[in-house]
Amino acid sequence: MTAPTYVLLGLSLLTRILVSRRAETRDDCSDAIPLVVCLLLSVAGVIHRGDPLYVYGLTVSSFLNCPWPAVFLLWIVAFSAGRVANALMLRPDSDFRKLVATGQASPGGVYLSLKGYPRYAGMILALPMIWSQAFMEEFVFRGLLVSLGRGLLGFLKVSIGLVDSLSIAVTSVLFGLVHFLPMHSCMRGKNTWIPLYALIMPTTLGVLFSILNGASGSLWPGWIVHCSLNYAVFVWDRVSGMWEACSTG
User: pLDDT digits over 196-213, tens only?
Assistant: First the structure.
């Protein structure tokens, strides 16, 4: 049964729309994720000729059968590594901190969209917003692209084991590049380690998400870790006020 998943996803998108309407009047910016998610679901429905959430195992029963110990372990390791990297990037003498202070670097779209909200209201609204954003990324990189890769490689008569390995590797690298390229552009000529981290960390997580997804037969593990990790980082940054301190420092 995928109805609960659709309800949660719908509420998440509705929250994004409402927040975006307020942001448009304030900053003249809009949120394209609700439209993109709807288009992705429609395209996937046509490609698979069925319920796209069911095809990718996003049912209640699959959720209950997630490999929870592995999910929790991955979350703890990834969150810890991210906090260490963030502290190094934002140390007082870092080039990245200087970019934050001048407005050339930021903590991301959700953080900026909710910057005008009271602290706890922002934390509440951030959860559904990050839920749909993580879904969009997981649906593309661990769902559609993996399916298309398997279809193409299968058409070329590549062995099943090699098909899975190549699909996971290619989509994970693409996921890493999506995070690497903006950071590389931002840090060009200033620092090589930060862009390298922005490539390696997402690529590694992409591989691990794919492995956990394969073990459960669904996109739930990657979606859950991705969403909860991003949300925990949002709360950490909001409570600590680190980005604001860097911006005014």
Answer: 999 999 999 999 999 999
